[in-house]
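ENTRY TYPE: paired fold submission
RECORD: A
CONTENT: sequence, then C-alpha cells
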Amino acid sequence: MNVRLLPRLLVAVVVATVLFAGAVQAADRTPAADARAALDRFVDGLESFSAVFTQTVRDDTGYVLQESDGRMQLGMPNRLHWEVTEPFPQTIVSDGQDLWMYDPDLSQATVRPLGDAFDATPIAAITQPERLDEHFRMSLQPVPGGDALRLVLVPRNEQADFTSLDLDLTAEGELTRMAFRDIFGQETVIRFHETERNADLDPAIFTFDPPSGTDIYRP
C-alpha cells in the first residue's frame, strides 16, 4: 500500500464508525457489550465531532512506515472533512453526496458518489447496523492502562481487504483511538486528542472547490 495516499478504507472506517454506532444495542449479552454500550454513548445526541489526530502506519514487522498529523471534523450523519497537514498534505471531504480526495502536491483530486465509495469496501457492511453481527465477529480486549474499552471487529468475509478494526472508547463514550489492519499486514493507528462534541462547524468545510489547474478524476 502506498502510505502517501490515504486509502478509501480509512475514510470508510471513520465515517462508518459513527454511522453504525447509533443503532448498536447496548443490551447485547456478548463479551463486548460494555464497549458496544460505550460506542452507543459516543453517538448518542451527536451532531458534530472534531479532533486533532496522529496517524501511524506500520508494516507487518512493526517498522514505522509513516507518521502524520491532521485534523478531522465530522457532521452527522455523513459529512466529513479530514485533513493531513504533515508530512504530506492531503484533504478528504464528504458533503453527504460526493467524496473528494485531494492531493495538493500532485494537483490531483478524485471524486466519486459517497455511496459508491462505501460500496467499494467491505467495511460498508457496518453502515447496516441490523446486519452487524452477521458480518463481524466482535470481542472485547483489555487496553494497556485500563482507561478505555477496546471493541474489536473481525470480518466474517475472508475476502475482505482488512482483517480487523479496533475502536477504543472510554466508559463515558469518548472515542480515543482506532486501528485497522489490512490484508498486507500493515497496521494504521489513529489517536484522537483535543476532541470536541457538537461544536458549531462552518458548513463550508464540508464542501470542496478544486483549485484552478487541478486534475479531476471520476472513476
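RECORD: B
CONTENT: sequence, then C-alpha cells
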Amino acid sequence: MLTKRKKLTKKEIKEDKLVEFYYKAQHYIEENKNKVLMYAGALVIVVVAVIFYLNFRSSKNEEAGTLLARVIDLYDQGSYLEAIEGKQGTNLVGLKKIVEDYGSTENGETAKIYLANAYAFLGQYEKALELYKDYGGSNDIYKAAALAGQAGYYANKGEHEKAADLFKKAANVSEINPSRPDYLLRAGINYMKAGQKDEAKVLFQIIKDDYKTSTAFAQVDRYFTELN
C-alpha cells in the first residue's frame, strides 16, 4: 500500500532547488571545464587591464601636473613663447609638449587652456580657438574659460551674437565661478552690439542684483545708460 507523500514546506522546496542547482552547475563545469576556465581567464585579463589603465592614467596625470607646475611661472610672467616651447637643456617642458604627451589627462587638459591663452596673447587666434574647442576636462572653471575663449575670438571677428551666446554659456557653467559676472557683462555687451537690447538688460540686471562686489558691477550702470 502506497503511503501518502509528505507535503514539502516552502523552505524545503527552496532548499531542494538550491541543491538541484548546485549539482547541475557542478555537472556543467565538469563537462565544460576548458570553456569555463577560458572565460574566467579572459575576465581576469580584462579586469587587470582596466586596473592597469586607470593606474597608468593616474601616473600620467601626476607627471603632467608636475610639468605644468614648473612652466606656469613663465606664463604668469608673460613669457608666453617660452611657456609654449619650454627651455631646452632644462627641466622646463613647454605647454605644447605637455598637451601633446598628456592631453588625455586632467592636468593635460588644464595645460590646453594655458596653451590656448598663450597663443591668444601672442595674436595666434586660430591656434587658440582650436585648443579652446578641444578642451575636454571636468573642471568647471576651465570649461567656462574654454567657452569664453571661443567667445572672445568671435567678438574680435565682429560676430557679436555668437560671442554673446558663448559668453552667456560660459557664465552658466557654474554660479560660483569668480569670473561669472565678467562673463555676464561681456555677454550683455555683445548682445547690445548685436541689437538684442532686452537680452542685454536681463544679464546686466543679474549683475546689479547678485554681484555688487564685482568689478563688473562697477561698470554695468554705464551700459544700462547706453541702453536707455
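NOTES ON RECORD B: DSSP finds eleven helices and no strands in the chain. The first helix runs from residue 10 to 31.
STATUS: closed
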